[in-house]
Write a structure and sequence with these properties.
The protein is of the alpha/beta class. The chain folds into 2 domains: 204 residues, Periplasmic binding protein-like II (D-Maltodextrin-Binding Protein, domain 2, 3-Layer(aba) Sandwich), CATH 3.40.190; 207 residues, Periplasmic binding protein-like II (D-Maltodextrin-Binding Protein, domain 2). Helices cover 43% and strands 14% of the residues. Helix 3 links the parallel strand 1 and strand 2.
Length: 428
């Protein structure tokens, strides 16, 4: 707990070079050079720029922005370590001007400790509020009414079902209940096919586990569970038992506890597995030959569930544009940047070229990404459960990944699963 308090205090104060040098060396520490840039150069820190979905569209948009405005933009790129790299640069007061990252783990505290600024006033002053979906504004607004960032990417998180593989195994319809899912898994295994592939050793498994546990929870109950780590209530315990029943019946791919999101995507896209719980960016990567015989729907529910339909996750907090204290010193350039990326033509290109779901209003359709478009159309056929990311305390986020791997290990009892999930919250 002392280290967390120290980190929050340092971020709030801006820190020092000495404090920054005490942190581990990181691959993206070029971010520390941000404050030394020409004052006319806008420095943006993003996960887009390499292989992340939407990167080519983003880089092309940056080029158009430079051409239209004459402004210089430096794009710093990091992957999963972006939040840590940004905090390192913030401690040295050399942070980038704009940060593009999701609302999760470390970033939950940024606005509260002054590592980034409340952008609500800018959103209104720049006339951009009407561009944002109301549900996205709600998701990005904290308990004190501050808007943490300008919402941008959203995502749907349905289940993809390979109809061809289901047909080959003699499964005549997409499973809609737990019993149907168990029956389909047995038939698929009889044909040497994996049923549900999942990255049980990373965030994909964590999200699916959370989704299954919510089978017997209302959204308010789920919010309490993932905020407090109290998995002892009747609904949470029933959800854990349901997960264990599915796991030990062979629903998930073999050795799921050691797999990652890349493993999951590869298994589904090469037709080694018949089903996957996949967010929009993964659906956009499904090859055309597989997408042609793939349906999207919800996760099957059990009798007595709190939901009367299969469930999906839908969230609007995937990527937002955060403004740093340094960014306020270049606010005119930041305004031009945000207005450009909020323009309908820019938003439409992310939808059409990259298959991205957006937190902004748009009439564009992902015609080149049929599974993404199909997920967008899911309405009354599914029920929504919470994405726990914005409720899980930052200190519990990574321990929950470890708990997820244990949970996907065959033979682990429901009591043990509950124990490791609750243990992730110790010291929070």
């Amino acid at each position: 707990m002392r280290s967390t308090t120290s980190r929050r205090a340092l971020l709030a104060a801006g820190g020092s070079l000495a404090a920054a040098s005490a942190l581990p060396a990181l691959s993206g520490c070029s971010a520390l050079a941000a404050a030394d840039e020409d004052p006319d150069t806008l420095v943006v820190h993003s996960q887009l720029g390499t292989t992340a979905p939407g990167s080519p569209t983003y880089l092309a948009a940056l080029d158009r922005f430079r051409e239209e405005t004459g402004l210089k933009v430096r794009n710093l790129v990091n992957g999963d370590d972006l939040a840590q790299v940004y905090e390192t640069s913030r401690l040295a007061r050399k942070e980038p001007d704009v940060v593009m990252v999701n609302l999760y783990d470390k970033t939950l505290a940024w606005t509260d400790v002054g590592a980034t600024v409340d952008v609500k006033g800018y959103l209104d002053d720049w006339g951009l509020r009407e561009r944002v979906r109301d549900v996205a504004l709600d998701a990005w607004t904290d308990a004190k009414g501050r808007l943490r960032a300008f919402p941008y990417f959203a995502t749907n998180w349905p289940v993809a079902f390979n109809r061809s593989l289901l047909d080959r195994a003699g499964v005549d319809r997409v499973p809609g209940t737990g019993d149907e899912l168990i029956g389909a898994a047995r038939k698929l295994r009889g044909k040497g096919l994996s049923p549900v592939t999942v990255g049980g050793n990373d965030w994909t498994g964590q999200k699916l586990l959370a989704q299954v546990i919510q089978t017997f929870l209302s959204q308010d109950e789920a919010r309490h569970v993932y905020t407090t780590g109290d998995f002892g209530g009747r609904g949470a315990r029933r959800g854990i038992e349901y997960f264990v029943e599915l796991r030990d019946a062979g629903v998930f791919t073999d050795k799921a506890q050691g797999l990652t999101s890349d493993s999951m995507t590869t298994q589904f896209n090469t037709q080694a597995a018949a089903m996957q719980s996949a967010m929009s960016s993964a659906l956009a990567k499904v090859p055309d030959a597989v997408a042609r015989h793939t349906d999207v729907g919800g996760w099957p529910v059990a009798p007595g569930a709190a939901h009367d339909r299969p469930t999906i996750i839908r969230t609007y907090t995937l990527i937002g544009f955060w403004i740093s204290p340094n960014g306020t010193k270049k606010i005119d350039a930041v305004e031009k940047f945000l207005k450009f990326f909020y323009r309908e033509d820019t938003v439409a290109r992310f939808i059409k070229e990259a298959g991205r779901d957006m937190a902004l209003r748009s009439d564009a359709v992902s015609t080149g990404f049929p599974l993404v478009a199909a997920a967008q159309r899911l309405g009354k056929d599914v029920s929504e459960v919470l994405l726990p990311d914005v409720y899980v305390p930052p200190a519990a986020s990574q321990p929950l990944i470890t708990a997820t791997s244990t949970s996907f290990t065959r033979g682990t009892s429901a009591a043990k699963v509950r124990s490791v999930l609750e243990a992730a919250y110790r010291g929070v």
